[in-house]
Design a protein that fits this description.
CATH architecture of the largest domain: 3-Layer(aba) Sandwich
Number of strands: 5
CATH superfamily of the largest domain: P-loop containing nucleotide triphosphate hydrolases
Radius of gyration: 20 Å
Length: 290
Amino acid sequence: MQICGHGNVRERLHRIASLSVMPQSFLFSGPRRLGKFLVALEFARALNGSSEEVEYAGEHDILVIGRTDNVSTDASKASALLSVEDIRKAEVFLSRFPIAGRYRILIIDNAERLTISAENALLKLLEEPNSTSLIILITPLPGRLLSTVRSRLFECVFSPVSAEDIRVFFPNIMIPEFFLSLGLPGLIASVANDPANFDEQKKLLQKLFQLSRLKWSERVMLAEALARTPAETLDILEAWIVGLVRQQNKSPSFSIAFAEFIEAAVETTDRIARGEGNPRSLLEKLFTRA
């Protein structure tokens, strides 16, 4: 499995995997499109001494829940919550002895979508793990998790990858430097996987970064376009937020109002991820502040 960047995190996990006694619950946090899920799979396979492809459905000793595609046009699917029933099924999986490896490993992607009841059920698994179970939560919004859950997780924070590392990893992809500077390998990978779709994402991102110069009618049209594919919109919004934060960090002269706008963008993205309200209405409200 090839992974772009995150050498420090991966080396840290490699050292942890070699320990005789190690944490049994992890939190992988950081923006979307960084490759957190790939690192989680790499770590899981390393723990169990396997490099083979593993089925998401729980075949062998790894179970993945919460993983969704990025092209869903169904808002309910894009923001589907992870229920207590999902955790109960995972509990049954973890209770069984590993088939081939050291551990039975549960990976919860998009963990911010766990309901309160599901988190409370998960908390019991975290408090009383059996010796052959390991749990990895992945989320771009760690603040959404209950503090009691988060306090029991060994957190690995993922940061954007350097433009140079991305350029080396994708030597044959021609793309403007600006998009490389966002540090999101998953975004660049989409150029190769679906060039037409990336062109559309690129246009939407460019409009977002030019938001303050758009007429109100253009902002409404942008909100409508983004609302068509909620799951994909989350990726686009988070890439935009990463870019806004980088702009702020590079230019101390940015105003308090700009920082407050970034906070509002984060909150809007969070609400769309949770399925709270109409995505178009939420985006239109945000765009009035630009």
